[in-house]
Amino acid sequence: MASNDRTAxxxxxxxxxxxxxxxxxxxxxxxxxxxxxxxxxxxxVGEVNVVVLDAAGEAVGQTRVFVxxxxxxxxxxxxxxxxxxGARIVIHFPATNGQPxxxxxxxxxxxxxxxxxxxxxxxRFVE
Length: 127
Hints:
This protein is of the alpha+beta class. 20% of the residues lie in helices and 45% in strands. The protein has one helix and six strands; from the N terminus they run αββββββ. Strand 2 (59-70) and strand 3 form a beta hairpin.
């Protein structure tokens, strides 16, 4: 596969994943919460911006991360920087498929990994 073909294919996957997220958030946001382990997770490939907030809700940092998977109530991220368990964050998803950009508040449930290798971050969306 040529380099341009891989880039085009990758963009389609990213757009499909972001489109799924927006449908999930806008169309199904009124559904009752399920147990985290019972939620269906959908693999997603896409890069988003995350703003880390302090206890007062003020931004204390931001970073680009990759979305690994999405569920109705949360998402899995891969980050180059550690995010403290319990940290409040805002995930900024880009505009896709004619939908506007989307920002979702979330809480970091876990952050596993090590400096230099990256971190798997589990987040739960908050209202």
